[in-house]
Amino acid sequence: MSAGLVERARAWLDQDPDDETRAELRGLIEAVEDARPGAEAVLSDRFDSRLAFGTAGLRGELAAGPNRMNRVLVAQAARGLADWLIARRDEPSVVIGYDGRKNSRVFAEDTAELMAGAGVRAILLPRLLPTPVLAFAVRHFDASAGVMVTASHNPPRDNGYKVYLGDRDAGSQIISPVDAEIAESIDAVAAGSIVGLARSTDYEVADESVIDTYVSRTAQVASAQPSVQPTVVYTAMHGVGWETASRVFEAAGFASPVTVAAQVHPDPDFPTVSFPNPEEPGALDLAYETAREHAADLIIANDPDADRLAVAIPDPASGSGYRRLTGNEVGALLGWRAAESLAAPRDGAPEGTLACSIVSSPALAAVAEKYGLEFADTLTGFKWVSRAPGLIFGYEEALGYLVNPETVRDKDGISAAVAFLDLAAQLAADGSSVAEHLERFSETFGHFASDQISVRVSDVAQIGATMRRLREEPPRAVGGIAVERIEDLSGGFGALPPSDVLRLRLVDGSRVMVRPSGTEPKLKVYIDVSSTDGDLAHRVDEAEARLAALRAGVSELVGA
Q: Is 454 a residue of the active site?
């Protein structure tokens, strides 16, 4: 077994152009040849499988071998994508962007050289930039495709490779069956060596005008010059958001936020956070500290590639003095803002669609109903949300928001920040606050409460076993509340494509959804309840009590 394994590893070593991963792999091979304990298992983990190319592209830990992110794997992906484009476009073109993670620029330049070498017009963005700028650039250059080198909010040692489509897809992320077609093309390249692949430095480097246009268009998300300027703290989470976001804020008329100095500049080591995701416990601690020092009215946080937005507001009941709003709360407020903007006097009824992923709160559907707008629920992921017909606003509970679909057809943490700053400034000018506006939402549409339970497993087979058990032995009640019906999305449901999701509708209107995580060895459960009875206090108490009962019932149901 080890002889064949070592042979495959040596073949990989022979084509690897990176000194660091070559040295690493050489050490692993020597360890196996010396029969060191555990060495063969380590090498097998690198070579017995490969990172799968799917609708999220590629993402994984930086290291040697086909089951890790490295220059060989990226070269295979770049040439595979180039071959796919050439087979389907008369004059194919691609825009390439990159963030501040380790090897991001190297991977981007490799991609540009291989695309140009294959005969694809390649345009490299001029420097490290947020993911939304790349998504915008695909449309700006009318390119056939886009590649963004980023691992978003993954751990520091990760990197990734996201692919976008141009033309009629307007800069949205790829969906099936395109992902499978590109994967097949990549596999064909991987069957040989990357050493013989044509490369060329005859690619274009975009000038600053593409960023200027993004800044100008995104600043227009603000409805008017703010008459009141809330005190705002901003963190880039060691990512690439600040330089672009600061320009957008200034162009929109907002005062420069107070920055979390230790996190404002790109740093691939992410030294102040163990997990650079604003949703993770502790990730916003420095932002809370800075906000307390400046008595801030609002905290705005982007994740490292600035496609997500987190918001926190003052909360005297919290130990930190601030509370991070959930993705559903931010989505509800921004959706309400979008609906209000269409409700201004005009000829005819308002038109447009509010959309969110199926695991996001039903609150947005309530907004759409009240304002006479269309509503679409989509599968999880912005590749689906962005494609909702007539979209005016879309979101998913994992801090992703799309507020200006005519500019960017992907989640954009910078434009969403502008929209939220605009809302906060208008509320302040009216003598109100975000906290009070959340209460008005509950009074207007009902109080919506959500929770999520994640069950991490050591063996991914456990996830499949749990999903089978729930299908074969469906629960009659959860948390003491009877199940009215179960919707199995595995064969598709309504307009939704097939997906490994179970949606439990309970007799009191509550909803429980169960699905495997698409990126981690986790089973995820989403719980949503709402109340429209009585005054605000009664609605909140009733919803929270039902949420607590369902949380306990779900934990028992899935073995959390």
A: no
Q: What is the pLDDT of residues 353-381, one digit of tens each?
A: 999 999 999 999 999 999 999 999 999 98
Residues 323 and 421 grouped into a single domain: yes
Residue 189 lies in a domain: yes
Residues 142-191: tens digit of each pLDDT: 999 999 999 999 999 999 999 999 999 999 999 989 999 999 999 999 99
How are beta strands 309-314 and 322-324 bridged, if at all?
A: antiparallel
Which residue from 385, 376, 378, 422 is spatially nearest to 405, judged by alpha carbons? 385
**Cβ atoms 351, 342 nearer than 8 A:** yes
Do 168 and 230 belong to one domain? no
Confidence of residue 346 (pLDDT cuts 50, 70, 90): low
DSSP string, 105-155: HHHHHHHHHHHHHHT-EEEE-SS---HHHHHHHHHHTT-SEEEEE--TTS-
Judge whether 302 and 284 are in contact, CB under 8 Å: no
Nearest to 333, CA basis, from 407, 220, 424: 424
**pTM score of the predicted model:** 0.95
* Per-residue pLDDT tens digits for 46-77: 999 999 998 789 999 999 999 999 999 999 99
CA atoms of 99 and 104, how far apart (whole Å)? 6
Buried b (16+ CB within 10 A) or exposed e, 537-558: eebbebbeebbebbbebbeebb
* Contact yes or no for 432/439 (Cβ under 8 A): no
Q: Which helix (H) or strand (E) holds 550?
A: helix 536-558
What average pLDDT score do residues 383-394 get?
A: 96
Tell me: do 90 and 134 sit in the same domain. Answer: yes
Round to whole Å and give the CA distance between 438 and 432. Answer: 11
The residue out of 48, 67, 83 marking a domain boundary is 48
Instruction: Give 319's contacts (C-beta < 8 A, 6+ positions apart).
Output: none
Single out the catalytic residue among 104, 152, 386, 442. Answer: 152
Angle in degrees, CA 115, 145, 338, rounded to 5: 155
Identify any residues that bridge with 57 across adjacent strands, giving them in sequence order. 54
CA distances in angstroms from 315 to 186, 310, 322, 329, listed in the order given: 50, 16, 5, 15
Q: How far is CA 338 from CA 88, 222, 223, 342, 347, in A?
A: 37, 12, 11, 7, 18
Q: Structural domain tally of the chain?
A: 4
Residue 38 belongs to domain spanning = 1-48
Which tokens go with 533?
Answer: 């009875």
Q: Which residues of 242-271 are buried (b: 16+ CB within 10 A; e: fewer)?
A: bbbbbbbbebbbbeebbbbeebbebbbebe
Say whether both 103 and 189 belong to one domain.
yes
